[in-house]
Amino acid sequence: MAGVQVANVSRSFGAHKALDNVSIDFADGGFYALLGPSGSGKTTLLRQIAGFDFPDAGRIAIGGESVERVPVEKRRIGMVFQNYALFPNMSVADNVAFGPSVRGEPKATIATEVQRALDLVQLGKLGGRKPHQLSGGQRQRVALARAIVTKPRVLLLDEPLGALDKALRVDMQIELKRIQREIGITTIFVTHDQEEALTMSDRIGILRDGRLVQEGPPEEIYDRPQSEFAATFLGDANIFHGDATGFGIKLPDGTTIAASTGASVPAGAKASCAVRPERIRISTGAAKPDPANANTLTGRVSKRIFAGNNSTYFVDRDGQTLKVIVQNTGAERLAEGEPVVLSWSPDSTVLIAA
Prior knowledge:
The chain is an alpha+beta fold and 354 residues long. Helix content is 24%, strand content 36%.
């Protein structure tokens, strides 16, 4: 196994800069998610690490060894794609055995390693089947077994769960995490699914327009986003714009929002605040103030969306629509058009420099 270091990597295609001076360290044995919208550069970065493409500038190292000009077949990389890329005319066992066979390993060794890989992905008894006889989740496991049977130093996953339905996707998230932990391989996972990134990874890197916007543990990025883009791309966030006061911001109408975390912004400078919808308390105008929730705004419910275990309220405040998520605990539900009070703690407010 090995860690991966990407240092100041850039890659352009004509006038389009797909990667712009990107630097990330992928720790040995960690599970890392690359998250971003279409065209953000996440798949391009994965291709640079795999060796399918070479950077215009910068350095890529695997296990401390520079590989930015090393061809893909010599990097000892395992890859799993969204479309599985299985050979339809081969059995499951032969699909998994393809890599070791090409490398000329002894047949007895190959048989042992293939069975071990299939047992690891819980398909030990299905080696004789063809891919068309398997479910989508099972075909994904075959692709994973084929990737790990060659004992790669790094495992790269490019939207591997994108073709699965939601229930199967959740099951495979659990399985992928279990397998990764069991073999301890450095894993880099490309996804556009925020929930996948949050639930599966040890660290997340958010890319936008070829640049790394923010990276760190999922909880850190979610609780302390460093930009409006990071706040709104990874989960929902209510964004307020105003002038920094030294401890928060003052809105154009004079209302002050207190923040206890985030960027250090000089008083008077333009700044923003981000507040997660689930951190806001919503109540009728008759409710008593809560001393713990120093930030208070008034508004009117414009819409309510029921989602089973929770409801999302959309609240209009002077032309701005704010989102509040509450658990459905059987308490009285607020009606559309009803005046409400929104309140939250300064600890739930993240100050962001403009």
